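re: ur question from earlier - yeah i can do the single chain one, its not a big deal. heres the input i used so u can compare w yours
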Amino acid sequence: MTRFGYTLMTEQSGPKDLVRYAVGAEQIGFDFEVCSDHYSPWLTSQGHAPYAWSVLGAVAHATERVDLATYVTAPIQRYHPAVVAQKAATLQLLSDGRFLLGLGSGENLNEHVTGEGWPPIDQRQDMLREAAQIIRELLTGDLVTWDGDYFRVDSARIWDAPEGGVPIGIAVSGEKSINRFAELADHLISTEPDKAIVEAWDAAKGGTSRKIGQVPVSWGPDRDEALERAHDQFRWFAGGWAVNADLPTPAGFEGASRFVRKEDVSEQIPCGPDLEAVVEAVRTYWEAGYTDIALVQVGDALQQRFLDEAAGPLLQLLRDAAPRG
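and the output i got, formated as tokens:
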């Protein structure tokens, strides 16, 4: 059965609003909620970047049913993997076992703030692999000492380690990253509705893991206004992750996306009141084999109205159309 989620987009909403939206999304019937983990918004017009782990702690306390996940945390620079393991263990206890730790190799936008420079992609992937190994060992509750290529851990133990640990999803983009990370991850995270990625992952994992994707939508009663909002706040999306991973600041994204047209945005993001258009956009993910698909409502301005007016009927349409097996 396909599961549908709601995205707590830290780049476009403040912390109290995010907790309020999380509660509303659970009440409406979303199956899970994912939270971005950013130090900066993509574009200045988005205007927010609260600390994701504080938000998730509050959400864990304020909700009862929905699964929660980071989408995604980078344990390679801004956070040491030993600290990520402790945060994940604590959140798993606060949420009574509803948390999934989503990991990825990160973006320069969020990691450059530590002043350590931005490593090339192969090094970032190597760092992520080593970090995931450390996190897995620490989540057992055992004493861990580690002296690796990129990280050191000296006699560390997670004292409040949840029984059964914390499930880990890792963001991958192709065969090379699947081969590198499948053994360290319980679940797949990816950004493209690419059936080949899902099939390669299932071949590596045996087909039993969750495959988690994300789809942006700009719902609103007026299509022109919805498109304007998507272009204003989400045109960075058109650059693709190969570009998005390396730009360092919102100003850089402003410059890189200055020639992205509204029609370019509308080709990637359904805009306006047509819920069937959203269903068709999401359909590409379940047809590619994704089991869990999170929606991103673009912009804060209509977030509450989206939850009040559109989310319930949209969930019904999605569940009627999606595979049930």
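The mean pLDDT is 96. not sure if urs matches, ping me
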